[in-house]
Structure formats: C-alpha cells, structure tokens
Amino acid sequence: GSLYQYFPNRDGLLDFAIELCVRYTTGMFQEYRPMLAAMPLKEALNAYLMGGLEWGQTEMGLVRFFGRAAYQGDPDLAERVVRPIATVMRETLQEILAQAQARGEINSTVNIEQTTRIVNALVIAVSDSQLLPYLNNYFQISNDDVPPERMIGVMIEFILHGINMEAK
After folding, report:
1. Residue 48: other Cβ atoms inside 10 A
2. Are 106 and 163 contacting, i.e. CB atoms less than 8 angstroms apart?
3. Inter-axis angle of helices 112-131 and 83-102, to 10 degrees?
4. Burial class (CB in 10 A: 0-12, 13-18, 19+), 26
5. Please, are residues 123 and 49 in contact by the beta-carbon 8 Å criterion?
6. Neighbour count for residue 106 (Cβ, 10 Å)
7. What gap in Å lies between CA 96 and CA 7, rounded to an integer?
8. What is the pLDDT of residue 168?
9. 3-state class (DSSP) for residue 1
10. Cα(23)–Cα(121) distance, integer angstroms
11. End-to-end Cα separation, the chain, in angstroms
C-alpha cells in the first residue's frame, strides 16, 4: 500500500517500471557504444553479441518482458519499449560499422545504413533465439551438436564475408 503514496494507481507504477527498464537498457548501450566502436570489427561484433547474451542471462526478467513486448505486438509497448531499445541497438551496430569503415576495415563504397539494418536483423534472430528458447524452436539456430558460441562465430564470419563481398 505504501507504494501508492508515490503512484496514483497500478498503471502509474507500471508506467514508472517500464520507463526505468527502457532507460536502464538504452543507457547501457549508449555507455558501451564508444568502446565497441573503437574495437576491430570482428572483436566488436563478438563482444556485442557475447556481451549481450551474457547480460541477457543475468537480466532474464527484463529479457522476457522485452521479448513479450517485441513478439506479441502490443502497440503501446511497441512504441514505449521495443522502438527505443531496438533503435539504440541498431545505432550501436551502425556506429561499430561506421568506425570500422573509417579505419579501412570496410570498403568506403559500402552503404553503412543499409548494411547495418541487415546485420541487425541477423543479430536479433541469432541472439533472441538463444535468450528466448521458444524462438530457437522456430529459427533452429543451435542444438546439442551445434552450440550457440559456434553459431555466433559462424555468423560473425558470414557478416564479415558478406561485407567484403559487397565491397568488391
């Protein structure tokens, strides 16, 4: 009952919790973005993915909430939760790729914005299937014979190869 001295009703409390979760998550991406962007591309992609999976394991309640918001289509949560977090994820990958291009790791003719969107979609499919096992039933990214770490390594090589192929 004492919580309601700060919030007029249950919805007010939920709104506060949602805002807190979104700020926490987007703030974390913004904090790590410069460090990731400064790394060589292969190391940055590996750190982004493995760090995200490790963080997701420790924040499973938040991951499940985000997963429900992202995959169940609630329009309110899509705008308040999914869009801001998805945007900061895409922007982080874009900065990683842009800095790699500035260092000469990616050909200057590669369209970073378009490439980022494809890489982001691939990263989401692979990482979400590991954080939300019901998605792995659909995507079939990993199993006992094909561990997630191996698939992440293969995906990173696929991305690097794809960017180099596009650059030719």
Report:
1. 22
2. yes
3. 130
4. middle
5. yes
6. 21
7. 40
8. 39
9. coil
10. 22
11. 64
Tokens 């590991």, located at residue: 130
CB atoms within 10 A of CB 148: 19
The tokens describing 84, both together, are: 């801001």
Neighbours of 82 (CB within 10 A): 19
Q: What is the longest distance spanned by two Cα atoms in the chain?
A: 64
Q: Both tokens of residue 152?
A: 């992440």
Is the pLDDT at 2 greater than 90? The verdict is no
The model's pTM? 0.88
On whether the CB atoms of residues 45 and 156 are closer than 8 A, the answer is yes
* 122 closest CA partner among 80, 156, 91, 99: 156
Give yes or no for a contact between 127 and 49, defined as CB atoms under 8 angstroms apart. yes
CB 131 within 8 A of CB 49: no
Residue 69: predicted pLDDT = 92
CA neighbor of 46 nearest in space, from 125, 127, 139, 142:
127
CA distance 86 to 8: 30
Instruction: Give CA–CA dist 101/81, Å, rounded.
Output: 30
3 state DSSP class of 47 = helix
H helix count then E strand count, the chain: 8, 0
Q: Judge whether residue 4 has pLDDT over 90.
A: no
